């Protein structure tokens, strides 16, 4: 039993996949079931994006924001960003302020690409992720978790779905807050995001060569969750 506990305490499960595939919700459900920590890597990049915005502002549009960020060359070390967990819930702090509630705005989402594509910020986030993995068994989702960040992970999953299905899911999520949004607009945004993610110079979206690929286009969340838990239970 003691040997088994040591193995369980160092477990890393990665969930990669394109935007809107449901990987974050799935990762959280798996972590809850296993009593692991769900690490939302995207939220950490959002935290750094929020920090940069506080320093240089939103600018008139995200292109001008990107230009200002590149010109000023702001290093991640300039910000006191930290990640804490309480009852398996992730919280992002900037200095001593809990900034988690402010990280999901559309304006911030449009600007995150400039921070997520910056080598020094990716290095800073990956360092945080590595430190977390030394302290907890984790389930972590992203686009390069199983390829770049944790190639040594014991279990790697790649979650996919058609653009049509991902757009529908995102539409149902966004529409209550933004009734003017259309399904076609979201579909175009996702298609553009897919192209950007797959062609990024750093941290491009790839399928880990030893991952288990699951297409969720015609599967409910519970079906996907039960499938993955069955695989994990079999492997354990």
Can you walk me through this structure?
The chain is of the alpha/beta class and 236 residues long. The protein has one domain (2-235): P-loop containing nucleotide triphosphate hydrolases (Rossmann fold, 3-Layer(aba) Sandwich). It has ten helices and eight strands. The protein has helices at 2-9, 23-34, 41-56, 62-72, 106-116, 119-135, 145-149, 163-174, 183-199, 221-235, and strands at residues 12-16, 37-40, 81-86, 89-94, 97-98, 138-142, 155-160, 212-215. The strands form two sheets. It has a five-stranded parallel beta sheet with strand order 2-6-1-7-8, with helices on both faces. The protein has a three-stranded antiparallel beta sheet with strand order 3-4-5, covered by helices on one side. A hairpin with a 2-residue loop joins strand 3 (81-86) and strand 4. Helix 3 packs across helix 5 (106-116), helix 4 runs parallel beside helix 5 and helix 8 (163-174) packs across helix 9 (183-199). The longest helix has 17 residues, at 119-135.
> Helix coverage percent of residues?
40-55%
Mean pLDDT: 91
Radius of gyration: 18 Å
Query: How many structural domains are formed by the residues?
Result: 1
Q: What overall geometry do the principal axes of the alpha carbons give? A: globular
What is the H/E order?
Answer: HEHEHHEEEHHEHEHHEH
CATH level 4 superfamily: P-loop containing nucleotide triphosphate hydrolases
Tell me about the biggest sheet?
5 strands, parallel
Main structural class: alpha/beta
Q: State the strand order across the main sheet.
A: 2-6-1-7-8
Instruction: Give the low-confidence spans.
Output: 1-8
End-to-end gap: 13 Å
CATH top level class name: Alpha Beta
What proportion strand? 15-25%
- What is the CATH architecture descriptor? 3-Layer(aba) Sandwich
What is the tally of helical segments? 10
Number of strands: 8
């Amino acid at each position: 039993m003691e040997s088994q506990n040591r193995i369980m305490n160092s477990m890393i499960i990665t969930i990669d996949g394109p935007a809107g595939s449901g990987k974050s919700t799935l990762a959280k459900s798996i972590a809850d079931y296993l009593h692991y920590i769900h690490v939302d890597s995207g939220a950490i990049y959002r935290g750094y994006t929020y920090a940069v915005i506080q320093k240089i502002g939103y600018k008139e549009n995200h292109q001008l924001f990107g230009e200002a960020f590149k010109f000023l060359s702001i290093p991640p070390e300039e910000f006191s960003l930290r990640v804490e967990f309480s009852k398996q819930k992730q919280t992002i702090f900037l200095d001593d302020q809990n900034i988690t509630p402010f990280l999901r705005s559309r304006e911030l989402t449009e600007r995150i690409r400039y921070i997520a594509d910056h080598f020094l910020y990716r290095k800073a986030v990956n360092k945080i992720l590595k430190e977390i993995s030394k302290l907890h068994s984790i389930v972590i989702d992203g686009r390069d978790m199983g390829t770049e960040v944790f190639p040594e992970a014991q279990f790697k999953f790649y979650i996919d779905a058609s653009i049509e299905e991902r757009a529908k899911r995102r539409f149902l999520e966004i529409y209550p807050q933004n009734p003017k949004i259309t399904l076609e607009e979201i579909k175009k945004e996702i298609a553009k995001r897919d192209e950007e993610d797959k062609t990024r110079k750093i941290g491009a979206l790839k399928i880990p060569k030893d991952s288990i690929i699951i297409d969720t286009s015609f599967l409910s969340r519970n079906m996907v969750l039960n499938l993955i838990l069955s695989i994990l239970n079999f492997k354990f």
